[in-house]
Amino acid sequence: MPHPNDPSLRSFIDVAPTSDFPIQNLPYGVFSSKDGLAPRVGVAIGDYVLDLWELEQDSRLDVGPLGVFSQPSLNAFMALGPKVWSATRARISELLRSDHPELRDNRELRARALVPMADVKLHMPFAVSGYTDFYSSKEHATNVGVMFRGKDNALQPNWLHMPIGYNGRASTVVVSGTKVRRPRGQLKPPTAEVPSFGSCKRLDFELEMGVVVGQASPMGAMLTEKQAEEMIFGFVILNDWSARDIQQWEYVPLGPFQAKAFATSISPWVVTREALEPFRMQGPAQQPEPLAYLKQTQPNNYDMQLDVALRAGAMNEAKTICSTNFKYMYWSSVQQLVHHASSGCAMNVGDLLGSGTISGPEKHQRGSLLEISWNGTEPVELASGVTRSFLEDGDSLVMRGWCQGDGYRVGFGEVEGTIVAAE
């Protein structure tokens, strides 16, 4: 049987070359539709969602315990492990192939199992057990360091020796399309003698990828590179909304807290690690050489194009303000997971790891407004008479990402969020 990543595969469902969801992708999500059934697990294919619960009931898909795909999250499926993930993806690929008649020629099953994307509501794809955000783009860390500490002290001494991160809030991770309320918090501008409490004035986004952990590790254990890789179920696009003025006052000495706790948005489709395998590549050279537990024996970065578009309330169309690539990340997702567990921290099914802001070496590749506007000193022009240094109420932000194959692309769809007033 052909491998699901075979670029020559075609589905009996017509899929445009620019679609994010060809047969080589098959990302997982959770959806509901007009049939009145509760949210359940599906796979995106072209402009349709393949209802895996329908296939499971019809005995076309067997992953073991019945009802795994009738649940409103991917957690139970992820817990079954990498061998089941791979076998299930191969079976779904077989059912969707243009040369395989089983689903193609079964009109009744096709009508039940294939739901037009336009008729579904997408939900959180998995229940987030814990959320950790990293700070792993050298370009982003350098830009921020130059802004606040000067060129000669841009990177902190520990940055080149380990992935820097902090524990965020799983409770406020939301799916694309969820409106984001402007946060409130303690503010203390440099000119103020004492802090005050009020609405954030310097609201920002951070373009990131999110790692979805599909396997648990026991408390007290360390992970090898191979173990960490096999624990990764897939990836989502992630927007780490950030209140820069709240963060400025609170981050010393323990780092971000309320400035990041109010919302984190993710895309509704989880693209599997296996689907991204053809786009794996070597990351930047790491100097000094990492300690032994962080050394990599294989390429763990991905050639993945990422775009951010911003539409101000008065605009009809969004304007692209960032185009970058996931390949620039200094610390890979595997290294982040290895380091996360290195103290003996137990990892759980459904853990989410944010990559940290993804910036590249060029100005148009900066992954946050803090960098794009250089801390508000260089406002970005969106349209005639419309500029932004930070996000305003009514602004809508859309992030997209994809890996380009030969005649197809493996994409994530989008993650969108619109800012609403604090009160």
From TrEMBL:
<keyword id="KW-0479">Metal-binding</keyword>
<keyword id="KW-0585">Phenylalanine catabolism</keyword>
<dbReference type="InterPro" id="IPR036462">
    <property type="entry name" value="Fumarylacetoacetase_N_sf"/>
</dbReference>
<dbReference type="InterPro" id="IPR015377">
    <property type="entry name" value="Fumarylacetoacetase_N"/>
</dbReference>
<dbReference type="Pfam" id="PF09298">
    <property type="entry name" value="FAA_hydrolase_N"/>
</dbReference>
<keyword id="KW-0828">Tyrosine catabolism</keyword>
<dbReference type="InterPro" id="IPR005959">
    <property type="entry name" value="Fumarylacetoacetase"/>
</dbReference>
<feature type="domain" description="Fumarylacetoacetase N-terminal">
    <location>
        <begin position="24"/>
        <end position="125"/>
    </location>
</feature>
<dbReference type="InterPro" id="IPR036663">
    <property type="entry name" value="Fumarylacetoacetase_C_sf"/>
</dbReference>
<keyword id="KW-0378">Hydrolase</keyword>
<protein>
    <recommendedName>
        <fullName>fumarylacetoacetase</fullName>
        <ecNumber>3.7.1.2</ecNumber>
    </recommendedName>
</protein>
<dbReference type="InterPro" id="IPR011234">
    <property type="entry name" value="Fumarylacetoacetase-like_C"/>
</dbReference>
<comment type="pathway">
    <text>Amino-acid degradation; L-phenylalanine degradation; acetoacetate and fumarate from L-phenylalanine: step 6/6.</text>
</comment>
<dbReference type="Pfam" id="PF01557">
    <property type="entry name" value="FAA_hydrolase"/>
</dbReference>
<dbReference type="GO" id="GO:0004334">
    <property type="term" value="F:fumarylacetoacetase activity"/>
</dbReference>
<keyword id="KW-0106">Calcium</keyword>
<keyword id="KW-0460">Magnesium</keyword>
<feature type="domain" description="Fumarylacetoacetase-like C-terminal">
    <location>
        <begin position="131"/>
        <end position="419"/>
    </location>
</feature>
